[in-house]
Known about the structure:
Number of domains: 2
CATH class of the largest domain: Alpha Beta
Largest sheet: 6 strands, mixed
Helix content: 10-25%
Order of helices and strands: HEEEHEEEHHHEHEHEEHHEEEEEEEEEE
Shape: elongated
Distance between the termini: 19 Å
CATH architecture of the largest domain: 3-Layer(aba) Sandwich
Number of helices: 9
Low-confidence stretches: 1-19
Structural class: alpha+beta
Strand order of the largest sheet: 6-7-8-3-9-10
CATH superfamily of the largest domain: P-loop containing nucleotide triphosphate hydrolases
Amino acid sequence: MALANVHGTSSAKGPAIDLSNDIEFRAVTKRYGAVTAVAGIDLAVPKGAFVALLGPSGCGKTTCLRMIGGFEQPTEGIVLIENRPMNGVPPYQRPVNMVFQHYALFPHLDVLANVSYGLRQMRPAIARAEILRRSEEALELVRLGGYAKRRIHELSGGQQQRVALARAIVNRPAVLLLDEPLAALDRKLRTAMQFELQTLQRELGITFLLVTHDQEEALSMSDFVCVMHAGRVAQTGTPREVYDAPASLFVADFVGKTNHIAGVVEPGGVFRLANGAALAAGGSATGSAAAVLRPEAIRLHPDLQGEGLAGTVTHRIFLGSTVEYAVAADGLGEFLVTADRGKTDQTAAPGDRVRLSFDPAALHLFPAGTAQS
């Protein structure tokens, strides 16, 4: 587990650019006065993929979305859609549509009129029969076939979101841009709509680009995740790659829950913890290091006999199928442990002395001082 091998941004320059990509950023920078919102990024979104731009507020993800949609122009670099440069091209001339966080539906129009609005603005004009056919087809795709004459205020939040989706796909765009479209929904409905969006994307076969700060949303819905930080691409990859092999401490912290362990990698690949415990880290790099460990990689034992870290349970949180424990490990600080509640050997109560064990291979090591890189 050499530091040199696990630290760094293996995909910071993005995937290779070719004609199979629907969206490409080539050295794109966006400045607002003295503020750099996007800093020279390269990005390629494969044709027909569901891609999530994930990151905290202010990381540049929405600015990227707006540059694709034509609502902002790059200060430097080129944005391409379907291999055509889009710099200077207005939004209405781009083969994209956007679903906004608050849907932006017309309250004075019924569902059908909302969905058909874009088609009715097209020039040369489309025949009324064709507009009706395509609008009804779009409503069927989003499971709202019987809602054409409903008013917007008569719909639930999830139904309004589906109307916004139907309005966006009725023009048959090459790319559908989703600006945190599930943020206004409650948790149960949000989960249901995640399935709906995945199904819709598969049925349409067009590229979906989702902007979100919700890690669970990005991991569960997308084919590829692009994690952004401070205007740059921190890592790109499949959800499993980003979660299981974070390229930096920032990615590890932002994508999923983590435990931090400080220590020193000694000659021979031994990772020495602050309390003197030693783990087999492997590799040839030495020096101060920070390790991250996922809570589900830790096993909690009610007996103190055997290898592992001793500690005291301070909190227990019941989450249905799992239980989360906060454990104060002797000399190391607090650890978060996620346990399957069906495993009786992993039950404990606050105040219990327990032993924590894990496979050293589950540790991700980074050089000390790179916490936010």
